[in-house]
Amino acid sequence: MTGLEKILSQIEYESDDRCRELIEKAKEKAQAIIKEADAQAQSINEEALAAAEKKVEASRQTAESSAGLVASREILKAKLDIIDGTLERSLEVIKALPKKEYFEILKSLILKNARKGEGVLHLSKEDTDKLPVNFVDSLNNAFKRGYKVTLGDSVGIDSGFVLVYGDIDINCSFDAIAAEKRDELRDALNALLFD
After folding, report:
1. Does pLDDT of 187 surpass 90?
2. What is the span of the domain harbouring residue 28?
3. 27 and 79: one domain?
4. What is the pTM of this model?
5. How far apart are CA 132 and CA 155, in angstroms?
6. In 3D, which of 96, 80, 89, 76 has the Cα closest to residue 11?
């Protein structure tokens, strides 16, 4: 198991614990709503038993439905919070990787997103400052024929890169990738964490 897999496993474990905790709180809240509805129903029943029976049932169903909706909303919110937190922590983990692993991820993404022709690679100031020697040469050696990149000026991104081919900018900052894939990642993480 690689360091990244261990970290992601730990994040998943922490997310599971957090989810269970939030689900318990939502269940407690639902129980409190049901208790309150039962108390209201009993009061109505004492005033007029015959008419109250119908009202009690309607009130109970409404309360249960309301409690179910509240619980469902709380659980959904908790799931989304956990997923968003997991995404944020994943980005933090990637950004905190050792230099070699971090730049291997960048290299892989650059190779995947490069286009035919000569592009200009723009990194964040921090990444430009810690760029390994011969990184661009290793990219160009790994490219297929007709692909090439040169290193451009730093850009105002946190991490990742921007590839520029004339008028075309390919924004592969990690924040942009996460934003673009957020729904897809939410679905995948939801299936992983909650199914």
Report:
1. no
2. 3-96
3. yes
4. 0.55
5. 18
6. 89
